[in-house]
């Protein structure tokens, strides 16, 4: 069994997250109000004012600056999403399971995967018809990714370009890594992320569905960075299905009746 802390980032309060194992800790993002027993990125060193542009990366920044100072370099630290929770295994097909059975299927510190790798990511997509670069341009603005690449230096820039000509992507900002690797990742990513944000804001690009454009660039860079630097293995995640939420109180209604779905990214995905 390893020492493991997973921070479950959320932009809403859901009482389901209060019932997760103690090593999965709810972390409220942005300038919203959360229960007193939750961690929030508004406390400590933070960039919560950039959450609308960076999405989960403001949470990763908070973890880096506030939670990694006093832990062993070989302890495991990671994140998940309030609607996407790590599972103990890979699944080949969608499987529905009950609210109660969710907890017995969550990733645990005793999973042997931690003995055989440095980083855990969600199972990747292998794009069928496009390269990673083409897929980005199809979904977002043209030329943005190509311009942002130039903010990288030397070999890092050339290797990232080569990665973008392939078809592999881990399409979620979720990973678990040894603490020293988590720190190295953040030291590499955030200078690049700030430069991407500055470029996007100067060119009035962060609007509509592209408000998180800098974060979308870093999603691609993250898959590249871990594949270049570390021994990576993959797990699936549970995506919470049909939400029954009260707009007034932001909590689950009849949570025992909410279906969940075992989900992994397929190895062949046609965009």
Describe the structure.
With 271 residues, this protein is an alpha/beta fold. The protein has a single domain (4-263), classed as Spore Coat Polysaccharide Biosynthesis Protein SpsA, Chain A (Alpha-Beta Complex). It is 32% helix and 18% strand. The chain has helices at residues 51-54, 56-67, 99-102, 132-139, 144-149, 154-164, 179-202, 213-229; strands at residues 4-10, 24-28, 39-40, 76-81, 84-86, 95-97, 119-122, 125-126, 168-169, 175-178, 232-235, 237-240, 260-263. Strands 3-2-1-4-10-7-11 form a seven-stranded mixed beta sheet. The protein is globular, with a radius of gyration of 18 Å.
Topology:
Blueprint (H helix, E strand, L loop, with lengths): L3 E7 L13 E5 L10 E2 L10 H4 L1 H12 L8 E6 L2 E3 L8 E3 L1 H4 L16 E4 L2 E2 L5 H8 L4 H6 L4 H11 L3 E2 L5 E4 H24 L10 H17 L2 E4 L1 E4 L19 E4 L8
Parallel strand pairs: 1-2, 1-4, 2-3, 7-11
Antiparallel strand pairs: 4-10, 5-12, 6-13, 7-10, 8-9, 12-13
């Amino acid at each position: 069994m390893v020492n493991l802390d997973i921070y479950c980032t959320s932009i809403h309060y859901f009482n389901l997250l209060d019932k997760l194992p103690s090593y999965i800790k709810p972390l409220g993002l942005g300038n919203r109000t959360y229960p007193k027993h939750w961690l929030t990125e508004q406390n400590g060193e933070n960039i919560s004012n950039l959450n609308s542009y960076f999405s989960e990366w403001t949470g990763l920044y908070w973890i880096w600056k506030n939670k990694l100072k006093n832990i062993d370099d070989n302890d495991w630290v990671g994140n998940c999403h309030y609607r996407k929770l790590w599972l103990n295994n890979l699944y080949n097909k969608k499987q529905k399971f009950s609210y109660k059975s969710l907890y017995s299927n969550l990733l645990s510190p005793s999973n042997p995967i931690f003995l055989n790798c440095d980083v855990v990511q969600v199972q990747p997509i292998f794009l069928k018809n496009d390269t990673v670069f083409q897929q980005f341009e199809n979904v977002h603005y043209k030329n943005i990714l190509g311009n942002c690449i130039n903010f990288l230096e030397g070999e890092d820039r050339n290797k990232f370009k080569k990665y973008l000509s392939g078809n592999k992507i881990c399409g979620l900002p979720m990973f678990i890594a040894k603490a020293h690797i988590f720190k190295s990742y953040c030291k590499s990513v955030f200078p690049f992320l700030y430069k991407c944000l500055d470029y996007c804001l100067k060119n009035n690009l962060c609007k509509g569905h592209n408000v998180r454009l800098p974060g979308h660039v870093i999603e691609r860079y993250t898959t590249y960075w871990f594949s270049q630097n570390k021994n990576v293995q993959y797990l699936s995640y549970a995506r919470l299905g049909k939400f029954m939420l009260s707009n007034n109180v932001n909590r689950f209604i009849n949570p025992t009746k909410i279906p969940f779905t075992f989900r992994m990214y397929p190895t062949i995905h046609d965009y």
